[in-house]
Design a protein that fits this description.
Length: 325
Amino acid sequence: MALLSVNGISKTVDNTIAVKDISFTQETFQKIAITGEAGSGKTTVLKIIAGLIQADTGEILLDGKRVKGPDEQMMPGHKKIAYLSQHFELRNNYKVAEILDMASIIEPGEANTIYDLCRITHLLQRWTDELSGGEKQRIALARLLISNPLLLLLDEPFSNLDSQHKKIIQGVIFDITQKIKMSCIMVSHDMGDILSWADSIIVMKDGALIQQGTPAEIYYQPINEYCAGLFGEYNLVDTDTPDFSSILNDRQNGKLLLRPEEIIVTTKATADFSGEVRHIYFKGSCSIVDVWVGGQIIKVQMQNATVLPGDIVYLSVSEKTHWFV
């Protein structure tokens, strides 16, 4: 039996469909990421799962038991589902240790392990008004974990953080899900972190679930251009042009999707096609180079790019199953 079952949930807010017939399951210890453009319904889904918003239709089952919405109980929420919102708060005029002691229902040794994982052991004797935003977030997360939940829900945990605190919370979330085996759903628009962290990714648009799959499936086999664009640079190649027709033995309807790193700079003798360099965009660890090929711009990832606008480059496509959108 799945740890979590989301069955046909829908929600309308102010005559606008916020969530439309969403269904998926989550296994114990599985890490699921939910992403999509702003207003796609990600946070609403997370709050319905947490029991903080009442769905109009459908139901949530945790460990086989229905999660009640706020209209069905005095106190919204579920004691076995920990929800960390974007707007977490800590009480003022308390020491961190006092805040945590009031919330803990686990053994002190287990709690200390969580404090270490959350990088807050050195903060236990601080007053809550002496903390930075990133420190408060990690303490709020630890406070949820010591309530011994079955499921952790994280709503945009990387937003509003500087680069230093973002790296810390990334490490914390990785350690929590790996070392104490916490089942987790994270809403985020930070695609790099989603791809490296999640077991399964759900993509939403206009309140609907439009694709779910592994990070590799979502990245290399997006269902449409919207999904492709969420996860970085891409090319949609018109394979009817002579420059590209020779590389395909499995042409299908639609356009060929190629990520920039799937196009390889090679020699004239081994090239599938060639083109003229138009623009170079330095990205630090690599460059994205716009190459004019057969009447269209093709984005190519190059390491240590030494080309200049106007240069002719020879390119080939990596050997893999072609994907059409």
